[in-house]
Design brief:
By secondary structure, the protein is an all-alpha fold. It is built from seven helices and two strands.
Length: 194
């Protein structure tokens, strides 16, 4: 239920949100409805049959339809990139809301921001990590314990202290986020990504 129904709807909602300026592609929406109905058939067969025959106008009964199968293997890197972009979009939209609120309180001589107007964002991708992140990656490599197949947090703290990064407020949160990302991507070892 979680993946087949709720996450499937969240994915559709995300697609609707990011295509709000151009609209969703009709064929993709029909494909989504077809698969959503197939997934809900065991739980609500009469409802699914109604959608299948009247809205989708599919020949035959949904009871004879094939279960949806993926056309290719899941690209975990693409999923992670999508999650990252969701976070970026949320950050941008939250900033816009804050800007609109602060400009509403400002004096009339301040140029107004039009949230409905055209806007653009440029995203740059670095080819190398900044120096402090490179140091953090090396610390992760050094603190990795192959026998336990995990990064030793005590060793990370010790190495951060030795390299002078313990007081850098960016270092430990970045290391933790890196560890979470490698766990979510199901690497055999956290250092496989490095």
């Amino acid at each position: 239920m979680k993946f087949g129904f709720y996450d499937f709807q969240l994915t559709r909602d995300w697609y609707r949100e990011v295509t709000s300026d151009v609209g969703m592609h009709v064929d993709l929406v029909k494909y989504w409805i077809q698969n959503a109905i197939l997934l809900v058939t065991p739980v609500a067969p009469h409802f699914a049959e109604q959608i299948w025959t009247t809205i989708l106008q599919q020949p035959g009964s949904i009871q004879n339809a094939r279960w949806p199968t993926p056309s290719s293997a899941v690209d975990k890197g693409l999923l992670e990139a999508g999650l990252y972009m969701r976070g970026i979009v949320k950050t941008i939209r939250d900033s816009e809301v804050s800007l609109v609120k602060s400009l509403a309180k400002a004096k009339n001589n301040v140029k107004k921001f039009d949230p409905k107007g055209a806007r653009a964002v440029r995203i740059y991708v670095a080819k190398v990590f900044p120096e402090w992140q490179d140091l953090c990656l090396n610390i992760i490599k050094e603190a990795y314990d192959p026998a336990a197949n995990k990064v030793d947090d005590a060793a990370v703290k010790k190495l951060l202290t030795e390299k002078g990064l313990i007081k850098d407020k960016r270092a430990m949160p970045w290391i933790q986020a890196f560890k979470v990302c490698t766990n979510r991507c199901k690497f055999k070892r956290p250092t496989d990504w490095l």
